[in-house]
């Protein structure tokens, strides 16, 4: 008799976005003509840049010709893309990587979701709260999260580390034993970053305790300030303890194109039952070669164009466009007296709801009084209660119109 | 302290292709000018068809325009592709499916590798021998295979069902309890098929024993004979017990483009610890929405072009090209007195090695005397010993040249 993976039954419904959709639909049915502006979802809206578009066309043409057609490519990605990633994203910042340390994939969500497979089933997982839900859910599915406690609204097997205005969104080191630590900087949902000094504390902690840090850096391209680390490998010794995830999704508008990469340094080890060190690079390589078949050649040609001189200028314009939105939102909300976080090195603005409103109360207020949809902070975890996320990914026009509407609210 | 998933240590080295590469390299270094023809790897060589190419270009153009740009798509795939899949691949054969029963993905290898996640860790897995290695390895990684026995060359936790010339490559039903059954038809590596009557035995067995059949049908497009089932759902009751995997890789030359789909019928159930039936469709949907982010929009537009009238004609020509190769190889080898299987409804020819040679002895003979690289059958499992796989995916010219060389061998 076929039995299911019972851990799936511990998953909580994807309450957040279902509830948002429900409230939005209800409002629309009661207000049929309403012109709703969404600053909720973390998805780009600007088209692909010309350098990428012309390379994608060239890739398609190569695949149409017998002489240049390519079938299965390397599961790890083509050298031409890996070499340019290393050159521009790492060597340019003084970090050296070998080609076999970079694994091209079809998305950071996939890699971040799959990476836990190479670790033991009894690993203790630490996440920040608020948190990107995939870190938690992928471990629930694998049986590492224990039971969900409806009172605490937390899994009893996960270690949650709070970040909020009171600690300046700087997480404290764990006070109990953990094995795997998910860090996301620039952060989704808060839009905040960690300084190199703060990041060093985590690297040192991981080295002292033989932990592995899973460092999600999908929003790296949005870093504007000089002193914010772009890679965890800027911290000495990080290659011994950290896997880094990067994506073309937000960097180059690839959310609908699908390309990302993951760095697993050769120095990085974890331990078998007998305490022998095993290279995680070998395990991830085995995982990817067994259960993955590489990214579309056409897509990889398009991704490589991001690094040409023309490509980099266009990407910078793209990021500038969204970051101008972010500044408008930040400044606009701050001028109304709201407490605003993020939005300086990330496309997310994390605001404290006014007058002690709950996240959902503020959601309803924005929806009904300004016809704006955002994301209630509590949807990302208990410590998100009383916060609200707006994104800078809308069009300039919609961002402006949304701010004008918020300006007219009584907050 | 971070510990590894110890099950990975039970994986055997990917001995087969490493050993092939090693012997080939050695031969090349000793015979620098040798003109080697590869009929080994199961990868296509013909370019994408014009209908697909023009749709891919159109998809790229849509992504370059603000008005038609698409960001994140549905993790399950776009309706336009799912609807056309259902219409042409199923409804045309009298099988009705709902849109939420089809999940578009970036490859059958991914889906076949990931599907085991939704089943309990103590599931007993049955595979045919010889077998496509991903079925076994993905279960080894999940801890379902037990230990590898170097003497039997098998995992002690896997149920192996032999297929060979003596049983006409028709597998017998399991004689011990199993929960999950991997079937692959048209078969890789043997190129053989099952009749509807034989397939019905498996469906009935699965219904009687509440098993789930994982039906890999990646080579469906190569079926030429009238009475060979194209889908397991042609068998009554199969929707209650079977998941079906299909791919554009071999159908339309998409090995380097990456698109496939998996059908998980709503009727299909497995059981929780208390014996309650749970819809596997819900679990797979949750798996994909949590750990996958959909296939490139551009790729999905290209895949949909496969089903246009023009597209279908071009795909038929593509399949005919390879199947003409297959017939040439079959007939050529048979005329030399070799026992030949497959190659009628599949692009693989599975031959019995002459004069009792082992798979590797025949490999060496073909390599050194005819400069042809194929795949030793024993690499797919113990019952592959004494067999050898050739593929029809080469160019016409190379296939012809290879046959001329084999013709001159003393066999």
TrEMBL record, chains A, B:
Catalytic activity annotation: (2S,6S)-2,6-diaminopimelate + 2-oxoglutarate = (S)-2,3,4,5-tetrahydrodipicolinate + L-glutamate + H2O + H(+)
CDD domains in the cross-refs: AAT_like (cd00609)
Pfam families named in the record: Aminotran_1_2
SUPFAM superfamilies per record: PLP-dependent transferases
MF terms in GO: L,L-diaminopimelate aminotransferase activity
UniProt KW Aminoacyl-tRNA synthetase keyword: no
Name used for this protein in its record: LL-diaminopimelate aminotransferase
Organism annotation: Ferviditalea candida
């Amino acid at each position: 008799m076929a039995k299911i993976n019972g851990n799936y039954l511990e998953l909580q419904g994807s309450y957040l976005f279902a509830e948002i959709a429900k409230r939005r639909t209800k409002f629309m049915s009661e207000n049929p003509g309403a012109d709703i502006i969404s600053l909720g979802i973390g998805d780009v809206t600007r088209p692909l840049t010309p350098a990428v578009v012309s390379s994608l066309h060239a890739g398609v043409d190569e695949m149409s010709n017998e002489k240049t057609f390519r079938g299965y490519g390397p599961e790890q990605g083509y050298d031409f893309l890996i070499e340019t990633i290393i050159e521009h994203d790492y060597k340019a910042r003084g970090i050296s990587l070998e080609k076999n340390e970079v694994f091209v994939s079809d998305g950071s969500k996939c890699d971040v979701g799959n990476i836990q497979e190479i670790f033991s089933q009894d690993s203790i997982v630490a996440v920040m709260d608020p948190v990107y839900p995939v870190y938690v859910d992928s471990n629930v599915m694998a049986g590492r999260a224990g039971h969900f406690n409806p009172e605490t609204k937390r899994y009893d097997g996960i270690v949650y580390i709070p970040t909020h205005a009171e600690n300046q969104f700087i997480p404290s080191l764990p006070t109990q034993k953990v094995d795997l630590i998910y860090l996301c900087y620039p952060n989704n949902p808060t839009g905040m970053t960690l300084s190199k000094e703060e990041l060093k504390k985590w690297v040192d902690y991981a080295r002292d305790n033989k932990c592995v840090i899973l460092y999600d850096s999908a929003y790296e391209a949005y870093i504007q300030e000089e002193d914010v680390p772009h890679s965890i490998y800027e911290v000495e010794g990080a290659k011994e303890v950290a896997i880094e995830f990067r994506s073309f999704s937000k960097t180059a508008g690839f959310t609908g194109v699908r390309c990302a990469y993951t760095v697993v340094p050769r120095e990085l080890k974890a331990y078998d039952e007998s305490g022998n060190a095993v290279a995680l690079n070998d395990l991830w390589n085995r995982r990817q070669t067994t259960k993955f078949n590489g990214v579309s050649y056409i897509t990889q040609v398009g991704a490589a164009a991001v690094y040409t001189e023309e490509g980099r200028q266009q990407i910078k314009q793209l990021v500038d466009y969204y970051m101008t939105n972010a500044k408008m939102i930040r400044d606009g909300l701050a001028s109304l007296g709201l407490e605003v976080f993020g939005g300086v090195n990330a496309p997310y603005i994390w605001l404290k709801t006014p007058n002690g409103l709950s996240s959902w109360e503020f959601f309803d207020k924005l929806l009904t009084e300004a016809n704006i949809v955002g994301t209630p902070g509590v949807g990302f975890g208990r410590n998100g209660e009383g916060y609200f996320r707006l994104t800078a990914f809308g069009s300039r026009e919609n961002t402006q119109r949304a701010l004008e509407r918020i300006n007219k609210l009584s907050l």
